[in-house]
């Protein structure tokens, strides 16, 4: 026979804080509901989120209509997100949260190359190319760019065998993955290289230009509503992996780009500025002759040893 539950004594709990909560006392009560067996890290994060969210609502005196608009905005942002269109991550990027988390997760000495966000246009499994002499963007618009990159440790010793994953936009500000004909077999302006005994790789690509992040979603609405520029300065992305070192995810930005100080994802760092030098037609670094003006970039990445 099922055991009968005895009725609770009347007036039980009426003096505890769980009733008659007001806009101030509700916070402590919500925090107190987190069970004692909760994973400690989850408890810390959730408690902090609750404290900050409640404080935000009190600080701005959030109305019901504003709360609902926020809920709807986040709902639509989630609904737009897919494997290839991560609007939620883009929201985090444009609110500076992604770069903040990256920065505090990869503290390193001032000389080492700094870490930046990965961004939505990286693709795992890009084609592996020889260390020198590859042309990356044979169907991509843009003026020629010759990149020579060197990878060293903090003492300047070259690192042989480092994997250098490169991806970039073309001269019109578009990545291959943004084009209708995209498939991995037709990758443009992306590849993985392996450094030689001098820690070097070199390749030919096209000079990237600054570009706007996708603005046809909720992030675009937020940018327009807050009068923010959606532009990113011209850059080439790199992910460099070598055993014993913190994998480096970074960009090299064109040091003369007009959008350096207003990068919409807050990724411009002083160790990530590269000098893209404009050259007149003539002999190129790879020994070829180029009959249009071209650019060269020579850049050294300094990896940080993992602890
Ligand atoms: C990018 O540079 O590819 C990028 C990074 C973060 C957000 C949007 C784009
Ligand atoms: Fe990019």
Per-chain topology:
Elements: H1 26-32, H2 40-60, H3 64-80, H4 87-94, H5 97-105, E1 132-135, E2 144-152, E3 163-168, E4 190-194, E5 200-206, E6 211-212, H6 218-225, E7 231-232, E8 235-241, E9 248-254, E10 273-274, E11 276-279, E12 282-283, E13 289-290, E14 294-302
The chain binds benzoic acid and fe (iii) ion (FE).
Fe (iii) ion binds at residues 119, 121, 169, 235, 237.
Key phrases:
307 residues; alpha+beta; Protocatechuate 3,4-Dioxygenase, subunit A; 2 domains; five-stranded mixed sheet; 14 strands; 23% helix; binds benzoic acid; binds fe (iii) ion
Describe this structure in words.
Strand 12 and strand 13 form a beta hairpin. The chain has helices at residues 26-32, 40-60, 64-80, 87-94, 97-105, 218-225; strands spanning 132-135, 144-152, 163-168, 190-194, 200-206, 211-212, 231-232, 235-241, 248-254, 273-274, 276-279, 282-283, 289-290, 294-302. The chain has 6 helices and 14 strands. The protein has 2 domains: 11-62, no CATH class; 87-302, Aromatic compound dioxygenase (Protocatechuate 3,4-Dioxygenase, subunit A, Sandwich). Strands 1-5-2-14-11 form a 5-stranded mixed sheet, with no helix packed on it. Strands 4-3-8-9-10 form a 5-stranded mixed sheet, with no helix packed on it. The protein has a two-stranded antiparallel sheet with strand order 6-7. Helices cover 23% and strands 22% of the residues. With 307 residues, the protein is α+β, with helices and mostly antiparallel strands. The longest helix has 21 residues, at 40-60. The N and C termini lie far apart (62 Å). The chain binds benzoic acid and fe (iii) ion. Residues 119, 121, 169, 235, 237 line the site of fe (iii) ion.
